[in-house]
Each structure stands twice: as C-alpha cells, then as structure tokens.
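I am still getting used to backbone structure tokens and would like to learn alongside you. To get us started, please write out a protein record for me. Start from the sequence, derive the backbone structure tokens from it, and show both lines together. Once you have written the record down, we can walk along the chain together:
***
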Amino acid sequence: MHSVALLAQAGGNDLFSNFLAFTILGIVSAAIYAIAASGLVVTYTTSGIFNFAHGAIGMMGAFTYWQLAVKWKWPTLLAIAVVLLVIAPAFGWLIDRVIMRGLEGTSEVTKIVVTIGLTFGLIALAPVIWSPRENRKVQPLFAGNKFELGSVSITYHQIVIIVVALAVAVGLRLLLYKTRPGVSMRAVVDSRSLVQLNGGRPNRSSALSWALGCSLAALAGILIADRLGLEVLSLTFLVINAYAAAIVGRLVSLPLTYLGALILGLVENYAVGYLPTNPQFLTDRDIDLTTTLRIAIPVIMLFIVLLILPHAPLRAHGLQRSREGVEKPTWAWALVGFGAFIVATATVTLFLSDKNVVSWSKALVFALIMLSLVPLTGFGGQISLAQMTFAGIGAVTMAKVGGESGNLLGIVLAILIAAAVGALVALPALRLRGIYLALATLAFAFFMDKVVFSQKAVFENGSLSVGRPPFLENDRVFMVFIAVVFSVVGIVVVWLRLGPFGRRLQAMKDSPAACATLGLNLTVTKLQVFMLSAGIAGLGGAMFGMLQKTATPTNFEALSSLPILLMAVAGGVSMVSGALLGGLLYGSFPVISEAIPALSSLLLVAPGLIGISLGRNPNGAANEIGTTVRQAIDKRRGRIEHDKEPSKFRAPMEPHLEVETLGIDRGFGPEDLALIDEVVRLDEEVVASGPP
C-alpha cells in the first residue's frame, strides 16, 4: 500500500521515477529495520541474551507515545522525549533487574524462552491497557510537509527516519567503543567478575544496555506506527524482519547490521515493482508464488544469511556452573506412570462434559507435540521454533491420505513425511547452534506459514477435512487413544534416553567440543534427533486434525510454535512428564477462562508470567514436583534426618558468589567463614592438627 502511494506521487509509468520511488521507500524501510536491529545487537552484545521481546517492547512504546501525544495531547517532541528517555529506559532497567539477572547459570534455551514469555506477556497486557475496540491512529511527524526529488515526493517524516537511523549508528559506535560505560557494557558479557575487579559495575552496565535497547525498540515502534497502524501483532512482529539485518552483522557488528538492513529494505521494495506475476500454469493450480514470496522475503533472506555467513562465537556470561539438570528416568517409575496416566484418563472421561472432553483432548495433543521437544531440546540441547509447522505437515498428510475414513496409513505417512521434512531442514542447519539454530527454524516456520500453508492447493477453501477411523468416532474413546499414543511415544523416548543414543545426546548438550574431540559424529546424531522430533510433532499434528475433524492454516501459524516451546520448558523439557504437564497447563487456560470469566484477563497474561519465572526454576515444574515428592518419601522412610533446628547459615542456591563476598572488596566475616565451612565441610581442628 505504501509503495502504491509513492508510485502515485511519482506520477505513473516513468521507469526511472518508479525505480527512484522504490529506492526511496526501500531506504526508509531499511532505516526502520536498522534502528530495530541495532537494539537487538546492543542487548545481545552487552548481555549475551537475544531479546525476542524486542518487538513487543517497541509496540508498547508506540502505544505509550499515542497515549501521551494523541490521547492526552502532549506536544509531540515532549511525548517522544518522555517515552525514549524516561519510560522505555525505566522499563529496560526493570527487565534487567527483575528478569535477566535471574538467568545466570541457565541454558540458551531458557534464556530464549524467558524472552518469548515476556513477548506474550506484553501482547496480552496491551489490550488490557488499551481497549482493542478503540480506533487509534498516529500521524507522521511533520504531517503534510514534503519536498520534490525529481518527480517523486518525499515526506519530512521519511527524512526524519533516515536521519535518525544515521544518528543512532554514529551514536552507538561512539558509545560502545569510545566511552568507558560502553566498553564496560561490552565487557560484562564476557566476565562480570573481571569487570568488577577492574573497578566496573556490571549490574549498572547490564541495566544500561537493556535501557538503551528498550529505547531503540520504542523508537522503531514510534517511527513505523503511522505506516503499520497501532495494531498489537503487526508492531510486535515487525522486528522479525529486522532479524535478517542483525544476523548479517552476526549480532556484533553495527556497520554490517546497517548493510543488511539496506539490502533487505531495497530487495523488499524492488520485489513489489519488479517480481514477475504468476505463470498461468501455477494460477490454474491455485498456487500464488508472487504474493507469498514478497511477504516471505525477510525470512528467506534470514535463512540464506544464516547458512552462508561465518558466525561470530555465541556470547555467554563466561564460564559458570549450570543450575539445570534432572535425574535420569527409571523403567519402574516410567511404566507405572504411563499405566496410571492411561487409567486416569479413561476414568476422567466418564465425568467430563462433551465440550470439556474435546478441550482436554486438545491439551493432550499439545502435550504430544511438546513431547517432540524432549529428545531434541531436553536431551540434545538443540532449539527448534518450528514444531507446530511439523505438526501442520502431519495434519495435511493425514487429511490428504487418511481421507474421510481416517485411514491409519495417514498417521504412518504423517510421521514419515514430517520426519523427512525435518531432515531437509536439519541438513543445511547442521552447522548452526544456539540462537542461530533457533532463528533458522523460525525462518522455516514463517516460510511454510506464508508460502506453503497459505496456498489454496494445500488448504482447499481455507480448511481440510480430517477423518477418524470408525472405532475412534466417539470423543471419549479418542481421548483415551491420545493418552495411549502419548504413553507409547513416551516409552520410546525413555528407552532412547537410557540407551547409547540418549547418552550421545546428553554429551552433545553438555559439550559439543568434547564430543568432537572424542570422535563422536555429532552431524549424524543431530540429523537423527531432528528427524525423530519432527516425526513426533507430525504425529501430534495428525492427532490434532483428527480431534477437530478439520485443519486450517491458522492452527499452524509460525508464531504458534513459540508458546509450545515456552510451556514445554515450563513443564520440564528434559522429562516426558514435563511435556505432559506443559500440555495440560497450556490446554487448561481456555477451560478455566470459560469456567471463571473473572480470571480471563489474568490467564491471558499467564503464559508470559510463567515464561518470565523460568529464570528462578529452569528445570521446570515437573522436576520440582518430582523432587518434592521424592524428598517427602525419603523423609517418611527415615532416609533423611530432619534437623529440628536448621543451621543459621545455608549454602547459596545461586550458581555463583558475588565478588564482594570473596574477601576482595572486604574481609571475611564470621558469617562468611561459617558459610564456607558448611559448603566445604572441613573441621578446622582436624585440618590444623595435620595428618595422623
């Protein structure tokens, strides 16, 4: 739409004028992407955390600007200054103080999930503050003012965007490389302790980086609000387009990030004017490539860049002791647990209403899809943001092959085809890890969503009919069937975990470098676990389609994979029971909201709150429950002596001690010595007397 308006200003069909119009609009788009991407680079370079919530923060900044400038009629410059210099930095400080400092000693998966949780929390919070029923518009800066460049009109707002992007680039370069606070911000990510030893204040530096990142996110949201409108999801996920620009800079280089933004902005807008129309033979088959490819250009570029560029080393907070780890499953507990689960499901179906049977069956399907992450993420440490996409492949296969009769061959092919697609995705991504792998799978999910699932040739009339076998037509029987399928797959996952393959996955998760040194073929292992995970997700998609008896593209949108990962990690992604708990919890939100309408607003925010809290308990709720139950059993059996008067001093639960408690900034006190005695468990008199 914006391109069409600019072409109208250019005066029609003149080739040079059209080219100039697309170029100008491409540069303006590039400036927006550059500002958004630079905020991502700042927070990642200075904290080691890739902020998936960057777009949501920008969305909140845009809405806050509207509240001040439009609703309360503040002067425009004053409203912008308050948002960028007060509100956004304060919010960044709060995020760092309350959330990010609790992520010490957690894995890359947990860090990603926490920012995903923050994203969904803000998406749910925005409509609570600003009613979606109210129509809101933001006028461009200097509205109505423009000047002519040849036959093309350029607005003052577009000039402001370009100038601001250049000013941000220069300002960030000077800050990060020419000032002491900037150097300290970059040093914190490598070693907080060394920064403190050299007189720096790592907590202050970390807070400054998040404050700066939030201000840049809000700036991008304000500048693009007139173009996208004040719509929560559009503003939130604009930043996904900026991922490609940030990856061109390998998440560390601002000049390369701006280059990536320029390439992306120009390619996007040139595609509008110069991408050829669909060939007739594709149109006859209800395939529209031109429109979908235009929409998917950012994610296509992201995937290509991830594959061809050398990567800077992924950043993390130095060497630290991990707080993550769960006990291995045992066959006795596993078999008893699966049997009890099937019996409990069959019993519960007798008391549920017909509507609630479908709702809780959907929760079990979500649990099955989350189970696909247990071997991949829980055992192998690999990140996937495309599980609902693989589920969509399974649902489409079941609809096409199973037909109205629900032929069980469709289930088998759903598993095999999803696994094959998983292999195709894994092959080019085998050299990726951490956040790069997460972004690659997210790019694949968006490509499937925008290019494949949107085609009428895939989803005729926007939906597909999915049949069930005659013996599964009853919803209560089908709920028990899902429980049996989950248990069978769970047994396979436990068997793999206790075997050689599970040990290889665990070794790959703990130290890929050590595995390579010992001669383990991580390439084959990663390919195998990706295929296994995609196959399980495909099975879950087939079950999802059979449950609803229909499947639509909206069921398998790219972003629907994010809450799947979030709730799987919240439940305990390293455990089969964690996947079950995560699925039940995720499926319970709409049931509780319908039963108790007063809690609906709280339940909308609940996934975000759960994700944010993972920094405090990264092993998940299932592990916490299991640990509590085992401790209670052991105490009951007398295996743990209960101290009626617990020691005043307890070993720290955090994975590290602050430097000031190590006798560097101040001497050891009696409490410090008592704490060390309890941790080390040495008797001073025995040590002083020497060896016998």
Observations:
- Confidence is low (pLDDT under 50) at residues 3-12, 314-321, 644-662, 684-689.
- The domain at 355-616 is CATH 1.10.3470 (ABC transporter involved in vitamin B12 uptake, BtuC).
- The first strand starts at residue 146 and ends at 149.
- Strands lie at 146-149, 152-155, 464-465, 550-551.
